[in-house]
Amino acid sequence: MSIAVAHLVRKANGIEPFRRFVASYGDVDAGAEHDLVLLLKGFAGDGDDTPYRELAPSAQTVHLPDTGLDLGSYSAAAHVLDHDRVCFLNSFTTLRVDGWLGKLDAALDEPAVGLAGASGSWGSHWSWLLYELGLPNVYARVFPSRQEARAALIRIAESREVTVRARGTAVAAVGALVRIPFFAGRFDAFPAPHLRTNAFLVGRDTMRSWPVGRIRGKWDAFALESGHRSLTQHVESRGRRAVVVGADGGAYAAEEWPDSDTFWQREQSNLLVADNQTEQYTQGDAQLRGFLSRFAWAERAEPGT
C-alpha cells in the first residue's frame, strides 16, 4: 500500500511555515513508508521555488496554480498522484508525535473506516448564522452575549489576518441575512461532525470520486469542509465512517471527539498534528479558549486553563 504525504506549500505564505514543517518532519518518525510530495502552489516556475526545494531535496513536487483554496489543490493533486493513499497536510501543519502517519494508516486499514484525520469538530456554520440572527439554538445557550461572542470572533479573524468589521449585533444580523441564500440547505445544524481538512489520510480513489466543484471563496470552502458537500459526508455516503486519530493511536468515532483531547478541548494533549488553529487555542487566554471550545463542542466544551 503506497502512501504519499502531500504537504501544501503556498508561495503567498512565505517560507517560514514551510521551515517549521520541515523541522517537525525531521524531528519525528512517520512510522510508515511514504513519499514526501510538495504541492507547490502559486510559484512562477522561474526558480522561485528553489529555496523551498533545497529544504526538502528528496521530495517530489507538483506545481499548482494559486486557485481553489486548499481543498481545490488537494483534489487536483489526487488526480495526479498514483499512490494508493494520500495524507494531505496544510501549509501550517507541524508534526507532533512519532508514528503519526503509521497511526493514521492503521486507522484507515479498518474496513469500516474511509477517512482518518488528526482533528474534527461538531461546529456548525448554519447554527452560528441562526445565532447571529438572534434565533434560538444551541449557541444561544452557550454564548449568552452576542456582543461578546462577536468580539471573540473578531479577535480570531484579526489573528488570521482576515478583515472582519467591528459591527454591532444588529448590523451583524443584517450581514447574516445576506448569507442565508448560500448557507440554507448546505449545512447541518449543530452538532455537525466533520473532520478538519488540515491533516487527513484518504484513499486516492475516494478523493478522486469526491465532487469538489468550483471553489470561489471561503463560503465554498466551509461547505466543502463541514457542509453537505464535505469529504466526511462523501465518505459516509459510501457506507464508511470518518475517525479522528489521537497521539495515543486511538481511532475515535464522531460521538467520541469531544473526549478525545485533540481539538479545542482541555489541553489538546492527544493531538497528533498541530496547525495554526490548534496553536491559536494553545496560546489563547481564557476568553478565547472558551469561545473556540464552545463553538466546536457547545455544551460539551471543557476549555483548557
Q: What pattern of helices and strands is seen along the backbone? A: EHEHEHEEHEEHHHHEEHHHEEEHH
Strand elements, count: 12
Cα gyration radius (Å): 19 Å
Number of helices: 13
Determine the CATH topology of the largest domain.
Answer: Spore Coat Polysaccharide Biosynthesis Protein SpsA, Chain A
Distance N terminus to C terminus?
42 Å
Query: Outline, from the CA principal axes?
Result: globular
Describe the strand arrangement of the main beta sheet, using strand numbers.
Answer: 3-2-1-4-9-6-10-11
* Beta-strand fraction estimate: 15-25%
pLDDT average, as an integer? 92
The residue ranges in which pLDDT falls below 50 over 5 or more consecutive positions are: 162-168
Topology of this protein?
Layout: E1 3-10, H1 16-27, E2 35-41, H2 50-55, E3 60-64, H3 69-78, E4 85-89, E5 94-95, H4 100-109, E6 113-117, E7 120-121, H5 125-132, H6 138-142, H7 146-159, H8 169-183, E8 194-195, E9 199-203, H9 204-209, H10 218-226, H11 231-237, E10 241-245, E11 251-252, E12 273-274, H12 276-283, H13 286-297
Parallel strand pairs: 1-2, 1-4, 2-3, 6-10
Antiparallel strand pairs: 4-9, 5-12, 6-9, 7-8, 10-11
